[in-house]
User: Fold this.
Amino acid sequence: MGSWNKYQQVCASCRYWAGHREIDFTATHFNALEPAAQCQKPFGPFYGVQMGEGSYCPQWENYN
Assistant:
């Protein structure tokens, strides 16, 4: 699994990625604990789809 920061707009740092991850106290660094999980973005194009931790979509939103 990868390590990401909030400036990398990938699923692991998106507020709607349902995967398990470790997040530091500043919500800047994310360690994905699983390689893929469902997207939970309401009305988004990938809602309910298994998305990889490093995937990207134009509807990415910051975790905090």
